[in-house]
What we know:
- The chain is α/β, with parallel strands linked by helices.
- The chain is built from 21 helices and 12 strands.
- The chain has helices at 2-9, 15-47, 52-100, 104-109, 112-134, 136-154, 156-203, 205-210, 214-239, 242-266, 272-314, 375-380, 405-411, 426-430, 439-448, 452-455, 475-487, 505-518, 531-534, 554-560, 562-572; strands spanning 334-341, 352-359, 364-369, 390-395, 398-399, 412-415, 424-425, 465-466, 493-497, 523-527, 539-544, 547-552.
- It has a 6-stranded mixed β-sheet with strand order 6-9-10-3-11-12. Strands 2-1-4-5 form a 4-stranded antiparallel β-sheet, with no helix packed on it.
- Helix 5 (112-134) runs antiparallel to helix 11 and helix 10 (242-266) runs antiparallel to helix 11.
- The N and C termini lie far apart (71 Å).
- Residues 575-585 have low confidence and may be disordered.
Amino acid sequence: xxxxxxxxGQVREFTKDSILTPVFMILEVITEMxxxxxMASIIDDGVQKGDMQHIYQxxxxxxxxxxxxxxxxxxxxxxxxxxxAGFARNLRKAMFTNIQTFSFQNIDKYSTAGLVTxxxxxxxxxxxxxxMLLRMFVRAPFSLIVAMCMSFYIxxxxxxxxxxxxxxxxxxxxxxxxxxxxxxxxxxxxxDDLNASVQENISAIRVVKAYVREDYEREKFKKASDNxxxxxxxxxxxxxxxxxxxxxxxxxxxxxxxWVGAKMIVSSSLTTGNLMSLLTYCMNILxxxxxxxxxxxxxxxxxxxAVRVAEIINEKSSLTNPENPDFVVPDGSIEFRQVSFxxxxxxxxxxxxxxDLKIRSGETIGIIGGTGSSKSxxxxxxxxxxxxxxxxxxxxxxxVRCYDLDxxxxxxxxxxxxxxxxxxxxxxxxxxxxxxxxxxxxxxACKLACADEFIRQFPDQYDTYIEQGGTNxxxxxxxxxxxxxxxxxxxxxxxxxxxxxAVDTATDARIRKAFREEIPGTTKIIIAQRISSVMDADxxxxxxxxxxxxxxxxxxxxxxxxxxxxxxxxxMSGGGxxxxxxGEN
Length: 585
């Protein structure tokens, strides 16, 4: 019921269209069912009696009724299309809007490909199903009932043949639909895998080509595509029983009605016109059953989609604003009080374990640690991208859970490890930091991030168009644009999560120098693999397996911290990355 309630809420805007559609479908059926009755009158009272006046009069009525049926059908289709398309639009809007509220924890729960499938394939299924429910699901049963009533009115004896056929065929259709539903529940999970394969390949096509992995990717896609194919084939094998059963029933009914009806005409208990009407009603009844079977197929397919779509709409963010949030962040001080964090559903030790430290406002803090030491998780706690499992994180002397989320995140600018630029001009991308920023402010931020120099080399300079994902700029250029974008927020805390790894050491040093001189009051947290990127920081945090291994100045750590000493020696003696052993002296 919760699924129906959720989906029903998206139809409310189109209640009028949703009511008018079945109304016009019913009117179409009523007018359509009058035609065989009028046809019988033409045959029995006009043709057989040679009454041309009667033929003209009833024929004119048939034309009028047919025209009314056509108008009702057109209006039913128009309102049905409006209601179903609007329903689909509202579903996509509701899902997309709710996805924007998701925390990182919610996002971790669903795959990107799964969300795309729900927004596209699943919603399309529901749109088609809703239109069929408004039109065919109303039209078919009503047409069947009216045709059956008219048949019993003409000849109860012959109509009994329809009734028996309907009962037998209806039972078989229910059995078929029950079997098929299970297959459709599985097929959309296979769609998620297929979309994941496509998305991953297209987004990383340059890497695929660089490593000559086209054959591997083709095989992976073929496997995912074949899984969808096999599941649909299983469903279609069952559904193929529908057509022969329907055809066998139709022709059996026609033969029986013709045989029994001919005997009744001979014995004068049935007229030729009535027999023609009965055969027409026979086709109406069986076509209505065919329509119902199509509706059941669509509903079976969409039932799985309905659950998946409602799941996204009803998903609640794991992060919520407090009842009376604070809208002012006093300063950029940070304090971790016995903070532990574990990802939802994860087993084993927490990824952050009893972190206890204080950072003064305006300090520059460097963070180093091996892969998997939870450096990114540590800084994610500051802007409350995740909530701590135990303990508390304070910014400006207040628990981050006391702040309005937008206020907190506008004061904590993060340049994430994976830099993302959006399609649009350089200025469009920069104004993600501040949508009202002037061009002069954008230029100043780019100068601080050492981005202005390469932007000036483009023919269109700051109006240069950035392709989706920033594919037409280098990795280092992308990082510097992302740093400039963060600076435009004028944050109290600036977090660089390994955000200068793709720039040369000289540029890295210039960026850090600009930070010291231009934004001294901003707390700066720099995650890096290079010792040279953090050695001039006020203090350096050494993380190891989610725990604080050392926290002090460069000189203090060189004297007291074994991990820092090892990294320093390896990199200063010719080694490269933090995770790579150094060269020999």
